[in-house]
Specification:
The protein contains 4 helices and 2 strands; from the N terminus they run αααββα. By secondary structure, it is mostly helical. A hairpin with a 4-residue loop joins strand 1 and strand 2.
């Protein structure tokens, strides 16, 4: 009787195990899903808005903690003062805009024109050993 009870219990457990087995996954020749231009653009806009919101809140926090109630001179000051660990990454081709007079933060697409152009001669001079 004891052997029959053990057999019935084991059979039940094996039966349960068979019920929870997943069917083998079939491979598909279907290409990966394609994302529409609209969905990619919406994702990019959401990323830009989240980055601007984060930086704008840090700018306001900086101003509240500043004894003269000034906005930071530039966005890098937020990192230097520990308000942010780093500036958020933006989608390729975008950069932050910032007005230190008003504290307004934004983004813009394109090439930053306010950055100095690389001067190859100056670069070469700085890499030469002193005394040459």
């Amino acid at each position: 009787m004891k052997k029959l009870l053990i057999f019935v219990l084991l059979s039940g457990l094996i039966g349960c195990a068979e019920e929870i087995r997943l069917p083998p996954q079939e491979t598909s020749d279907m290409p990966p899903p394609q994302f529409s231009e609209e969905s990619l653009q919406a994702e990019q806009e959401a990323q830009l808005q989240a980055a601007v919101t984060l930086v704008a809140e840090a700018v306001q926090g900086y101003r509240l903690l500043d004894s003269a109630k000034n906005y930071p001179e530039n966005l890098n000051r937020l990192v230097e003062r520990g308000m942010l660990t780093s500036l958020p990454d933006l989608p390729t081709g975008y950069y932050f805009t910032y007005d230190p007079e008003t504290g307004e933060v934004g983004t813009r697409a394109g090439i930053r024109e306010d950055l100095p152009a690389l001067d190859e001669e100056a670069e070469n001079e700085s890499s030469e050993p002193a005394g040459h």
